[in-house]
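User: My advisor, Dr. K., asked me to get a structural model of this assembly before our group meeting. I'm new to this, so sorry if the format is off. These are the inputs:
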Amino acid sequence: MENLDYARLQMAFTLGFHIIFACIGMVMPFFMVVSHYKYLKTRNPIYKKLTMAWLKGVAIFFVTGAVSGTALSFELGMLWPGFMKHAGPIIGMPFSLEGAAFFVEAIALGFYLYGWNKLPEKFHWFTGVIIGVAGVASGILVVSANGWMNAPSGFDYVNGEFTNIDPVKALLNPAWFTQALHMTLAAFVATSFGVAGIHAYQIYKNRNVDLHLKAFKITIIIGTIAAFLQPISGDISAKDVAKRQPAKLAALEAHYETQKGAPLYIGGIVDQENQKVSHKIAIPKALSFLAFGDFDAEVKGLNDFPEDERPPVAIVHYAFQIMVGLGVALMLAGIIYLISIKKKSWLQCKYYWLIFVIMAPMGFLAIEAGWVVTEVGRQPWIIHQVMKTKDAVTPVPGMKYSFFFYLVLYSILAITVTWLMQRQIRSLNQKID
Amino acid sequence: MLYVVLFFLLFSLLLYVMLGGADFGAGIVELFASKNNRANTRDIIYKVIGPVWEANHIWLIILLVILWVAFPVYFNIIVIYLHIPLTLVLLGITIRGVAFVFRHYDAVVDKSQFWYNWLFRIGSFMTPIFLGLSFSALINGKIILIEDHPSASFYDIFIQPWFNVFGLLTGLFYASLCAFLAATLLIGESEGKSKQHFSKSSATFTVVLVVVGFILLTYGYSFEIKFIQDFIVNPLALASVALSGILLIPLWKFIKQQRKIASRYLAGIQVILILFAAIVTHFPYFIITSNEEISILENIAPESTINNLGWMLIIGGSIILPGLFHLMKSFKMIKILEKS
Ligand code: HDD
Ligand code: HEM
Ligand code: HEM
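Assistant: The format is fine. Below is the predicted structure of the whole assembly, which you can bring to the meeting.
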């Protein structure tokens, strides 16, 4: 593999690592303030204990998100100087606003973490809300920067020069809204099911059920709502992709031949050499309908794009199937929860809880898959139709070592954080004194 | 607007050097504290630095964002030629950051604390060293821009600019500055024996700082580092360094009289003076490569970007600075109204 490949691997790995912590950092504060609110209302010490436990979780995840994010801000330049040199001045606005959002978040976190019994109760609670809101805002802003890579706007590109720069237009690029909506929902789905699953496991093991049931309820309600909205927003995203990045759409559907009334493939094994998809279920005309809202619309196939402008098909197609499949599964889990509200007897059934335990990592898997769709699907472009990835990569040799360095560092970090979470839960199960 | 942006760039540089520096310094003070004092130091650090810990490090991100948005040529040189030391800076930031939080938020207190503590201390020490190394590479005239020298080796281009004695001295200088700041900050929050302890370490680090600073200047001068040679003949730079030295005397008086706020401001002013001296020497040519001096005011982002960034910084600053001020005040970082 070349330097370029290692640079990509490193980017993908570190972003894939960061996104998990970023999502948790965005959503956990909301759980925390809901529990905190219930404590203030009921003065039930269980809620206090839960709030404090989640708070410790937020602190641990927050710092891991923050340090990996700091590393990313360097990496963006250290790996892709060619990109940052030109793109930096254009997409500076989301990043500078994001800096402000981080700041607000960090200040609020300082107040919240250290403010117990020092600040007025209501103000203290409110600083918790600000952590969450600022977190979501920073998430939306970064995704807008990513949207710009998919749908570059706010500049003129003449003879290799970027002129007439309009930072506001670049921020509000055609992709920003659909992507940010989908991403924010994804963060809520993944984190809610993740946390709910952890508490479901404790209930499954019959430990401190009182507390874990409360925790489960708070998280699963939020998760269910988000899981229902997710496919709707995904459909909007797909229509958007069809319009702005037809090659990506073709790749994610493994659609080789341009066709009117194109069928939708579910599953399937992609043979990139012979451009065939085997073992699939084909639903007639469904792709045309899903992409353009018209059963007979023409969908451009990959063969209509120049060879050096086609993204890798297999990875993108599989990743897309995984994301959609998991999205449907998460929605079904939400339905099971909704039914159990009426059918209380389910709560006594061990398998009921096991379902949520199994669903716990699925949202995060879907997020990783979704990003693979977006990023690999954009290849070979780093800025769609403007700059190729290979023209942006750093001239520094030896990215191989850099990649392995991050691989080792972050693997250790991930293991440590998991281990710390286990310890948190164990101490949570000790009876309230 | 360019000057607004430049102001915020230098402002966040200053605050990172000072606040981030005090943070690193806390770990250094802990590293060099005697065994008996370490546990105590750890608790005081948590109390003093904990609430603002996160915020202190965002200045680095702001600094970086301003660089890449407004000064892409500078940013590019930094991220390409300082790839290796910056990776080590990131390693330091990562391990000290997580170790700090882990040691205070781990639900179980047991032997793992040993590891958290040592990672925190070592990370706190290595980060300013590598920051210093990186900074020195920008000004010591050893960077070889690749286009000019396609024949230069990996070592010449990516290692030799920062891996040298001058760099190490700069790193040590910054590390001792950090420790000096932290010790001065911590004195105010401690009582009795630990107060004595911090006074002692503050004194030690002041001496180290002055000595390392002196060696740095002498070395730079005798080995013809252009930046230092210019520094030494620049009256404004010399005057501010001298002033910062003289201010050590009232600083010690304040510390003795337990005027902790005044002593903090004074230590802050000293850092400002040192930084001012460094900036004024070579403004606006902050990057000195092997064959040219690169002005920060040339090849900047287009005007529309600069204007936009300037407004963002003004608006963002007017939301954040009061919040930050309030945070520091609430947790008694900057102003104590009454003794309680
Ligand atoms: C919990 C996570 C999750 C779930 C359940 C889904 N997605 Fe998703 N998807 C994401 C998480 C995600 C993501 C990680 O958030 C992405 C990557 C980039 C982005 O903006 O969102 C994404 C991207 C993404 C894209 C590409 C957008 C682009 O490149 O601009 C499409 C077309 C879809 N999704 C469609 C769907 C559909 C039809 C789903 C039906 C159930 C679905 N997603 C479920
Ligand atoms: C956190 C979620 C994200 C994940 C998991 C992710 C994943 C990936 C992957 C898999 C690649 C490699 C593509 C390939 O080599 O085929 C990549 C590349 C890249 N991504 Fe993302 N990405 C994420 C978000 C972002 C965001 C928000 C930005 C920018 C603001 C971004 C910027 C880049 C850049 C600059 C590259 C390198 C160029 C390229 O290979 O296209 N990514 N990312
Ligand atoms: C889609 C991808 C991303 C999302 C949704 C996202 C979101 C977030 C969120 C919510 C945080 C707050 C930390 C926490 O609460 O744990 C965070 C931290 C951070 N992120 Fe990301 N991020 C993404 C990608 C990136 C990229 C590409 C960069 C760099 C260019 C970046 C830079 C940072 C930085 C510097 C921090 C630390 C801020 C702090 O100290 O609080 N992020 N991110």
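One thing worth pointing out at the meeting: Residues 3-42 of chain A form the longest helix (40 residues).

User: Perfect, thanks a lot.
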